[in-house]
Design goal:
The complex is a heterodimer of chains A (375) and B (561).
Chain A: H1 3-43, E1 47-51, H2 56-60, H3 62-70, E2 75-79, E3 97-99, H4 103-115, E4 121-135, H5 136-144, E5 148-152, E6 155-159, H6 160-168, H7 199-213, H8 220-235, H9 244-253, E7 262-265, H10 266-276, E8 283-289, E9 293-300, H11 303-314, H12 316-324, H13 332-339, H14 359-374
Parallel strand pairs in A: 1-2, 1-3, 6-8
Antiparallel strand pairs in A: 3-9, 4-7, 4-8, 4-9, 5-6
Chain B: H1 2-21, E1 48-53, H2 62-70, E2 74-79, H3 81-89, E3 97-99, H4 104-107, H5 110-115, E4 118-121, E5 123-132, H6 133-139, H7 144-147, H8 152-160, E6 166-167, H9 175-189, H10 202-209, E7 212-214, H11 219-229, E8 236-240, H12 241-250, E9 257-260, E10 268-269, E11 272-275, H13 281-291, H14 294-304, E12 307-308, H15 311-316, H16 336-350, E13 354-361, H17 371-382, H18 389-394, E14 401-407, E15 415-418, H19 436-450, H20 460-477, E16 482-489, H21 499-508, E17 518-522, H22 528-538, E18 540-544, H23 550-560
Parallel strand pairs in B: 1-2, 1-3, 6-7, 6-8, 13-14, 13-16, 16-17, 17-18
Antiparallel strand pairs in B: 3-11, 4-11, 5-8, 5-9, 5-10, 5-12, 14-15
The chains are: A alpha/beta (375), B alpha/beta (561).
């Protein structure tokens, strides 16, 4: 072989080898990249969150877990009563986020965080109105006594002013007009969870205070006096469940005999209906007029948590899954279409919405009720 | 999720391996309380201890089912509602979780709330009045329309008129008994909402309790006795619906029970399963998920006749539950004053007062091993000043009559003590402080015990016989008391009559003696088998004070007295 030939051959061989090496390297690199990506997804540090019971099933949903993992925002959540969350605000050992039920609990946390010098960013990706879960015969009695009126097919609007008045006058069911279907000597009362511990009961206090006062309370003395008066709506119930589902569990499993009217989040009955693809024939929703819309408030305490907040609010899949758990999102159409097949009648538009009193006033009213209940 | 599944699988695998190495467990399912960190034991998954109310004994097979389904080694220990509540409140239990028929007192107390980390209701059973069919017919309650109108007031009236005689577990220690009293109180107060201590109408309670003929402290015992005494001493059983349905299905009753759900309200047990130890949260969640699964819910419904909490399962087992109309729930008053006052009033004022002879072993052997001290301590305990819930249950109550009968070679003389009655208000209940007169009687009992001297041998049967004869004579004179004999002893009988002679002499006593049970409290090395044989003749129970805390012994004795 000539020298030239040898050199050429060497070059060709080298080129071939180089190319092989190059391609081999390429392949390895993309494999490495893919592996690195999956590893990054898998090893992305979990965001820690303290959440209300309402959103626990949402975070436990496989689809949500996968979506969040793919976005490198996997979460590890712990369920805590909303009103106990503020106590978990400890500088230096904070979770990435809180997800309490309701603005009152959220304000409490933000307040605690402010005092501990920890900044928190608020957003509300889903919401649900406060409603009264009830029964057809009860709705009939309320209508017969002018305290409610039919809104649509099997939904009712309850006049909170009249209902609150009847309760404060200590009316008994059997004393009402046309009460044959529920001629019991128990007082007319809406059952709630324990106001000392839960957000939904605080919303009930806010709503009845609005009904009794005719407006949102702003003044401390009036708020205290009214809370003292409204305390009986809680005290006369006797024992109240102190976890959010307790009251609702009684409504669905014990029924009308224990719980003729239960103050709940609409999403509780909606998600119950969606899971079971239907509800009991007699179960109806009464929409208080006015009512309060409960926002599930996302409080982000870290940059990654802010990214999660953004994802929860914007990702169409996550929003749709939230609806499957009974929440309403900005797009009411999705909500109505999802609920329809269950046969549970819901109101499309929630009108006459009021705000709860300010956090400070609310806290003070709850204190007053707590004191009254201890006596 | 994957990681979780894998570790769960590992746990199951480890358990299976351990299971293979171990000899099969005895059927009891009760583990020794402390296995201890021994060097030889492999890393076994720790037991998940659950303190349960005794009416849940029929759910014990869940131990195996839970372990098989979840790998969690769940083990029950059982106790009465009130003592279990107190154990959780005061953190005097090492259980990781608690499962009560009713935990409302626990959960309405801030301290109780702080002890309970998570709670989930598992099933439902309303407290129901089971009336023998023939009795129900006489009262007109076999007609469903009539039965639907029965109230606690009509039940109290029928009791006062002697038409209704019932079995019920102790209102001072059990949820069923207590809630039945609350039903009567609610009905008589004609108040629409939750009651307070001031609302109690004492006469209504007194009326209702006139029909209380068969007391006891747990449903298993009461069910046995009810089968024996249905149609003679009692015609009605007030208990959870589940126990009444079980009796109706069991084929042992003389006649079927008609289930009546008082119109103005029943109390429904909702069986919350509660996490106490946060470090076992994961196990708790697995167990709850299983208990609420269709498999466990269906088993509970079919085997224990409790209503499922899951409405889907409820629909599938609807055939096994009565289709009565609406059951109205009694509002539950979380007022501690009402509860304490009602229990106090029940013990000291309403219940049939207790008259008993305490037979005290003062033989020479009692001097040894601190047995005398144990006996004296027991006397101090019942005549003491312990005002805790359990203390009040064990203590001598107002109107109580006590004779002390020490013995060694022969039965000694009887010394009589009478606890004075209280001064109740006409309406309302509150815990009464011990009057000076009562304090003096209690002090007298204590000094009597302090002065006991131990010498001689043990004429146990002669002494028990003497006590029984004495109680018989007393019963004839003053029938308005609950008579019993309580004997404290450390040893075998070695003087006077033997067991066979005792039995022969007992057989000669008038028939009335059968209503007087004998409770034996053992110290030292007493021979349990002989004593059990004696109890089989006289009725009553043997309590081992070597294994059981004194308060538990007396609480039990009280419940049967």
């Amino acid at each position: 072989m000539s020298k030239v030939g040898k050199v050429l051959l060497t070059l060709v061989l080298l080129a071939g080898f180089g190319a092989a090496l190059f391609f081999a390297m390429q392949g390895q690199q993309s494999e490495v990249a893919e592996k690195a990506r999956t590893e990054a997804v898998a090893s992305a540090t979990e965001l820690t969150g303290i959440i209300a019971l309402d959103v626990e099933p949402f975070f436990a949903d496989e689809r949500v877990r996968k979506l969040l993992a793919d976005q490198r925002l996997p979460v590890k959540v712990t369920r805590v009563g909303s009103r106990e969350m503020a106590a978990k605000v400890v500088a230096g050992s904070m979770p990435d986020f809180f997800f309490p039920s309701g603005v009152v609990a959220a304000s409490q946390i933000v307040d605690a965080a402010r005092k501990a010098n920890v900044p928190m960013a608020q957003s509300s990706p889903f919401h649900t109105p406060m409603v009264i879960a009830s029964w057809t015969p009860i709705a009939g009695i309320l209508v017969a006594n002018g305290m409610a009126k039919p809104l649509g097919d099997r939904t009712y609007g309850v006049d909170m002013v009249k209902l609150t008045r009847a309760m404060l006058e200590r009316k008994r069911w059997k004393d009402l007009q046309g009460a044959a279907a529920y001629d019991v000597s128990r007082g007319v009362l809406v059952s709630t969870t324990d106001v000392r511990r839960s957000n939904s009961a605080a919303m009930y206090l806010a709503l009845t205070s609005y009904a009794a006062h005719g407006d949102v309370l702003t003044d401390r003395a009036t708020a205290r006096a009214l809370a003292a008066k409204l305390a009986e709506l809680f005290k006369r119930q006797g024992y109240q469940e102190n976890y959010v589902n307790g009251n609702f569990d009684d409504y669905v499993s014990i029924g009308i005999g224990k719980t003729p009217m239960a103050f709940i989040y609409e999403n509780q009955l909606v998600s119950y209906a969606l899971t079971r693809k239907g509800v009991g024939a007699d179960m109806v929703l009464l929409y208080p007029q006015p009512t309060i819309v409960n926002k599930v408030v996302f409080l982000a305490g870290s940059e990654r948590a802010k990214a999660l907040a953004d994802l929860l609010a914007r990702n169409a899949d996550l929003q749709r899954i939230a609806v499957e758990y009974g929440f309403r999102i900005a797009d009411t159409g999705v909500f109505m279409r999802t609920v329809k097949p269950t046969g549970l009648a819901v109101e499309e538009r929630i009108t006459q919405v009021v705000d709860p009193p300010s956090f400070d006033l609310m806290a003070e009213m709850i204190d007053v009720v707590t004191q009254e209940m201890a006596q | 999720m994957n990681r979780f599944r894998r570790s769960a699988l590992c746990t199951i695998a480890v358990l299976t391996l351990l299971g293979c190495n171990k000899a099969p467990d005895p059927a009891s399912g009760i583990q020794s309380p402390q296995a201890g960190p021994s060097a030889t034991a492999p890393a076994e998954s720790p037991t998940f201890k659950v303190l349960a109310t005794s009416d849940l004994k029929d759910a014990q097979p869940l131990e195996g089912m839970v372990e098989k389904a979840t790998g969690v080694k769940l083990r029950f220990s059982f106790g009465g509602t009130m003592e279990s509540t107190e154990a959780v409140l005061t953190a005097k239990t090492d259980a990781h979780a608690a499962w009560f028929a009713n935990a409302k007192y626990l959960l309405s107390d801030p301290q109780g709330q702080s002890r309970v980390r998570l709670q989930d209701k598992i099933m439902l059973s309303p407290i129901t009045v089971g009336v023998s069919e023939s009795t129900a017919r006489k009262l007109g309650w076999t007609d469903p329309a009539q039965a639907a109108k029965v109230t606690w007031k009509s039940i109290a009236q029928a009791s006062a008129q002697g038409k209704l005689t019932y079995a019920l577990s102790n209102p001072a220690t059990s949820n069923q008994g207590f809630m039945a009293l609350m039903g009567v109180v609610a009905s008589a107060s004609s108040k629409a909402d939750a009651l307070t201590a001031a609302d109690v109408d004492r006469r209504a309670i007194a009326d209702f309790l006139k029909g209380y003929k068969l007391p006891g402290d747990n449903s298993t015992y009461l069910a046995e006795k009810f089968i024996e005494q249905q149609g003679t001493r009692v015609n009605t059983f007030i208990n959870y619906e589940s126990w009444l349905l079980t009796l109706n299905n069991g084929g042992k009753l003389r006649e079927r029970l008609v289930l009546v759900y008082p119109h103005e309200g029943v109390a429904t047990a909702d069986y919350p399963f509660m996490l106490l130890d946060d470090s076992r949260r994961a196990d708790y969640q697995k167990v709850v998920a299983y208990l609420k699964s269709p498999e466990a819910q269906t088993w509970l419904a079919r085997q224990t006749l409790r209503r499922p909490i899951s409405s889907e399962v409820a629909a599938t087992v609807a055939d096994i539950f009565p289709k009565e109309g609406m059951r109205v729930e009694l509002p539950f008053s979380p007022d501690r004053q009402l509860a304490d006052g009602l229990i106090d009033a029940y013990l000291n004022e309403f219940r049939l007062p207790i008259a008993s002879t305490f037979v005290l072993d003062t033989s020479g052997s009692m001097e040894g091993n601190g047995r005398r001290a144990q006996l004296v301590q027991a006397m101090h305990y019942i005549a003491g000043a312990d005002n805790s819930l359990t203390g009040r249950l064990a203590k001598l109550t107002n109107r109580e009559r006590v004779w002390l009968l020490p013995f060694s070679d022969v039965p000694g003389p009887l010394t009589f003590f009478q606890v004075p009655g209280g001064d109740p208000a006409a309406r309302g209940v509150q815990v009464q402080q011990d009057s000076e007169a009562k304090q003096k009687v209690l002090a007298d009992v204590r000094s009597y015990a302090d002065a006991l001297r131990m010498t001689g041998s043990t004429a146990l049967y002669d002494s028990v016989l003497k006590a029984l004869e004495h109680m018989l004579a007393q019963k004839k004179q003053s029938p308005g008391y609950q008579y019993s004999v309580v004997a404290f002893t450390d040893g075998e009988n070695n003087k006077g009559r033997g067991l066979a002679e005792f039995k022969a002499a007992y057989a000669q006593l008038p028939e009335d003696v059968r209503g007087i049970p004998v409770f034996m409290v053992l110290f030292g090395e007493a021979k349990e088998s002989d004593l059990k044989e004696m109890i089989a003749t006289t009725g009553g129970r043997v309590f081992d004070a070597r294994k059981t805390p004194l308060y538990a012994v007396f609480k039990d004795i009280r419940a049967y007295q």
